[in-house]
Amino acid sequence: MGLAFEGAAISKFIADMETATGVLDDELRPAMTRLMTTTGSLRKSQELLSLAIDVSRGSGVSLETVVNDLNRAYVGQTRGLAKYS
Questions:
Q1: Alpha-carbon distance values, 20 to 37, 43, 60, 74, 84 (Å)
Q2: pLDDT digits 0-9 by tens, 8-61
Q3: Residue 7 in contact with residue 36, Cβ under 8 Å?
Q4: CA 71 to CA 47: how far, in whole Å?
Q5: Which of 73, 26, 39, 10 is nearest to 81 (CA)?
Q6: What is the sign, positive or negative, of the torsion defined by CA atoms of 44, 52, 30, 22?
Q7: What phi and psi, each to the nearest 5 degrees, are found at residue 2?
Q8: What tens digit of pLDDT does each residue of 65-74 get?
Q9: What is the pLDDT of residue 5?
Q10: Packing angle, helices 25-39 and 63-74, rounded to 10
Q11: Under 8 Å CB-to-CB from 44, ≥6 apart: which residues?
Q12: What's the whole-model pTM score?
């Protein structure tokens, strides 16, 4: 994807998110990886991960589930978003 050179930026973002949100690295890294694979964009993945954390906290749905739903929505399968109103 051409994002290999972004390794330091990704690590810093994950560390900052962990500190700011209390969500563990073990959850953030796989979520970020899935988002980057789908979007191909570091910036869009960061935006979606931040949104996923907010939605997860607000809805009580796991971060993994929210990330999966956002991934599907990004490629046009929006049906999974209905549960979040």
A1: 24, 18, 18, 25, 23
A2: 888 999 999 999 999 999 999 999 999 999 998 999 999 999 999 999 999 999
A3: no
A4: 12
A5: 73
A6: positive
A7: 80, 15
A8: 999 999 999 9
A9: 62
A10: 10
A11: 35
A12: 0.88
**84, 55 in Cβ contact below 8 A?**
yes
| 43 CB-side CA count, 13 A | 0
- Listed in sequence order, the residues at least 6 apart from 18 whose beta carbon sits closer than 8 Å to its beta carbon are 24, 25, 28
CA distance 23 to 56: 11
Nearest alpha carbon to residue 50 among 79, 14, 81: 14
Pull the structure tokens for residue 37: 């694979």
Question: What DSSP letter does each residue of 43-65 carry, written as one string?
Answer: HHHHHHHHHHHHHHHHH---HHH
**Residue 45, CA distances (Å) to 75, 83 in order:** 13, 22
What the block records as the tokens of 23 is 């969500």
**Residue with the two structure tokens 């999974």:** 80
